[in-house]
Amino acid sequence: MIAGLLAALVAPLSLRGGPATSGDLDLAARVRAAVEDDRGYQALHVSEITPTSVRHTGVGSIDPGGAEALGAATPIELGSITKTFNGLLLADAIARGEVAATDPVSTYLPRLAGSPIGGVTLEELASHRGAVPPFPPPTMARGLWGLLTNTDQLSGDQLDWVLDQAAAMPLFGGRGTVQYSNLGATLLGWALASAAQQPDWQTYVTTRLLTPLAMTHTRFAATRDQIPLDSPRGRLVGGRQAVQGVSPVYQPAGSSTWTTPEDIARYAQAILRGTAPGLPALDPRFAGEQAASPGDPRVGYHWFTLTVAGRTVQWHNGATAGYTSMLVIDRLAGRAVFVVGNSTRPVDPVAIRLLTGVADGPGSTDVPMPVIALAATTVALVLIAGAGFAAYRARTRLQLVRATAGALLGLSLWRVAGPWDHAPGLLWILVAAATAATVMLGIARVRTRPWHRPRLAALSWAGAVLALAAAGLVLSMGLH
């Protein structure tokens, strides 16, 4: 009983949207129908856009059990949709005569001169066809650690360090094939700012795009105090609040863009009206493998193209530690849909369904359980089962300590990276309670047994300490 209650206190939360609603009620009803199953979503905001009108609605509660929905003026984290700003600005810079599409990036970032990445062209960076790795290796390693520990690991990188890292890196495969690269998008943004003789990328994008389109609530956080104070916290799988990251360098890739649905509606309207700069960026011009674009892997300058039921649409999505977003535009029909949610479940299918009315076409089907969740579940259950068996069969007290630590390790890993967008947290509680019961049986068996076997004291204590340390580390990740 006590074990079950303790497990319930720390169990992963299976996010559900809740009844909160704001804005256009008719659109809200269509959003709920498009969602079908709200597991993994917390709060969603949807903007339905034409050249002359915008309809906004929020469905679901910002916080579990709360009554407030995401509003049109609520600050939200945009993610990689920011890359489309660079796409438009590249096409605009070409039209201005500032750059050529085939210019090597080292023309504008001379620290890359003579390196493999320095020879990659601007249009290759804008279409992810330059074989540029996703991030510098140290950043990639820190980023993975940050995902596990729910900590910000990008804020310390500086531009010169990133350029020096890029100059020393080999290409990642062959040029000409679409391989998504945040580093490539970052280099493109800083190269365009340099070509325009702007002091930094933030000044450049504000001058060329945000100010002309009246996107007055869009900002790029380089420090934590630049994050809007009233911004809702995103939620990770299992319900943990996500850390709000900042980055002075990776802003062109979307690392720390804060905006509002109203601002993104202005952006989409300018594209539909033909008043945004650099509109040729949306035109599909390259082909390549791109898993995120099922059925039609064409790409322009940071815009992907998808064909659904004979309709051609341009799109880009975004994902941060606690937000997901999707902007999809049908220029021929004069319609666009923007969807953002403060959880990690992708919103792409919702946006595609609302724009096209197709429930099971390319891009409109739900993403299956992520491979990482399946792998974590498999590893965790093997650890838990093995530890439970070892606890029941323990012949010394330290054997029981090691087995208990192994069970805690498995349970903590499962809590951090399990499939809680698809499975109820009650499953974790039941497994944790059963594991605790097995450990209690083991305790009853070893109460009168020695701490360790003769002549194995040092090894037994070392194993127990290491097992407890590993379990404590992963447990702290799960509770952070």
TrEMBL record:
Lipid biosynthesis in keyword set: no
Beta-lactamase-related domain sequence ranges: 57-349
Domain of life: Bacteria
UniProt keyword Membrane present: yes
Keywords: Membrane, Transmembrane, Transmembrane helix
Transmembrane parts of this sequence: 371-392, 399-417, 423-444, 456-479
InterPro entries in the record: Beta-lactam-related, Beta-lactam/transpept-like, Diverse_Enzym_Activities
This protein's name: Beta-lactamase family protein
Organism, as annotated: Candidatus Phosphoribacter hodrii
